[in-house]
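BUG-238 | component: ligand-complex export | severity: low

The export step for magnesium ion jobs runs without errors, but we want the raw record kept on the ticket for reference. Input record follows.
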Amino acid sequence: MTDNFAKTIVLIPTFNEKENIGPLVREIFNLYPDISVLVIDDSSLDGTAEEVLSMQSSFPNLFVIRRSGKRGLGRSYLDGFKMVADDQRYENIITMDADFSHNPKEIGPMLEKLSKGSSWIVGSRYVAGGGVENWSLRRKLLSRFANFYVGFILNTGIADMTAGFNCFKKSVLRGIDLESISSDGYAFLVELKYRAMKAGLHLSEYPITFSERREGKSKMSSGVIWESIWLPWKLRFR
Ligand SMILES: Nc1nc2c(ncn2[C@@H]2O[C@H](COP(=O)(O)OP(=O)(O)OP(=O)(O)O)[C@@H](O)[C@H]2O)c(=O)[nH]1
Ligand SMILES: [Mg+2]
């Protein structure tokens, strides 16, 4: 099991998460000293990347990509995947948000489940045992509706297609044509899972409790919401 952590890298996309990223990185290394963490920062204006750089002397397995140009969650993840692809140290990838919505304590159990023969674990709010904490009714309804909507159109059998907390074998990325992924915002998380399923992969859901972001502001914009509305239709009729 310990061995498993050394073969695992946690990918965290950030945009203006200075207050969250320090405590989160410390908590992850506290729980799993052998794990690696890669922060993919999109030219944050608040010093998020500098905060990560300042911690590198304490944590040798802490890495950062500083992106410039057009911002996007999808592009950030793709850059992260590219960096990890040829690194022989890593067999497992975790994706998670920087704002403490995803509890690092769930990484261990998700990896454990992965090691028992699954190739993709979705940290799911919408299976028995999962849930959402401290979210406004508006956010709850929006998230529920988004998953209902995506499920209705794509019919994947996965209750939480929009989940950002994932744990998968790095090797599965080889079966997905990453270059052709079109979505850039939160829709990327749906498209990635859908592509993985189309590549013949079975995704399993693991119940997690999702919490409201701890510090900082939401990055949700009308642009990424529109993209999420079109994406399932695009995927279905491509
Ligand atoms: N690199 C990068 N990271 C991003 C971008 N947009 C959002 N993120 C990060 O992606 C994660 C999820 O974004 P959030 O803003 O928390 O989205 P959310 O959870 O739907 O919204 P909240 O309710 O505000 O938490 C966070 O770690 C963000 O910092 C982006 O354009 N580029
Ligand atoms: Mg969030």
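Assignee comment: Attached the raw record above. The CA atoms of residues 61 and 228 lie 34 Å apart.
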